[in-house]
Amino acid sequence: MMIHIATELPSFHSRYQSEQDCIEAVIAMKWPNGFICPRCDHTKCSCLSSRRIPLFECGRCKHQTSPFVGTIFEGTRLPLLKWFITLELFLLPDGISATRLSQVIGVTYKTAWLMLHKIRHALGEFDARELLYGDVKVNSDQYGRNPDRCTVSHPHASAVVAGCTVDETGEPQQVKLRLVQQKRGSDRWAARRDLTAFIDEHVDSLSSDVRLFPQAFRLYSPLRNIVREAWKSLKSTYGALESKHLQAYLNEFTGRRWLHLSETEVTIGQRLLQMCVAVPGISYNQLITRQTNQPFAAVA
Ligand SMILES: [Zn+2]
């Protein structure tokens, strides 16, 4: 049974009302200055609009292309309106689980799971491209510790390197959380070399003042609080997460947090759509064969 959005999510109102609105939004995002042929850069085309998804034919080389090619929407059989509602639900403070999404938009659990992972993938790809720079702090931390219980044993905690930029008051701005390979368990923490590797990959060292916090008992506390927030938020929506996809969920948390911090209410949806239009979708097979703790950007 399809659950009515208005009753289930009282604060939620989709900006998009029709399939045509959504298709036009993708076309506008894909070609903001008008059509450009992906093969020959020609800018004139004719539109074969008898199809559900419009097909554009280049006026010079006759190459036919859809606005969905190279986006996470490529190959989808679903109405785009369902995708757009999903994007909006993804931006809710704690996101939405695949179970809940499947009920809200009336698709199978597997379809909902794959849609959410495609969005996560787009967000993760953008996150991987944006280096931290300026005043940067880097902690060796653990994800999965219950912040309300200071017990010694945390069998499911995963070692992470957490890095952030901070503003003048020391508040974290852009944050990145990276799992450290195969370190799960109470006494496992990222080593100094893991922090150095993080800086090599994710920090623009030339334009940054980087400070490391490698000791568990002396971490940069505003950043440590974000790792705890990530755990609380992801746990509230998804319950316990298997380590195979944990990096993708960490990227979802930091990506969404950064979108809410850096964008306005008007631009946040546009920014997420921009990412989804710029990144080809990850396939179901790629997702299920993903290795545990695989660095996210390495997934083709
Ligand atoms: Zn062409």
TrEMBL record:
<protein>
    <recommendedName>
        <fullName>Transposase zinc-ribbon domain-containing protein</fullName>
    </recommendedName>
</protein>
<dbReference type="InterPro" id="IPR024442">
    <property type="entry name" value="Transposase_Zn_ribbon"/>
</dbReference>
<dbReference type="Pfam" id="PF12760">
    <property type="entry name" value="Zn_ribbon_IS1595"/>
</dbReference>
<feature type="domain" description="Transposase zinc-ribbon">
    <location>
        <begin position="18"/>
        <end position="64"/>
    </location>
</feature>
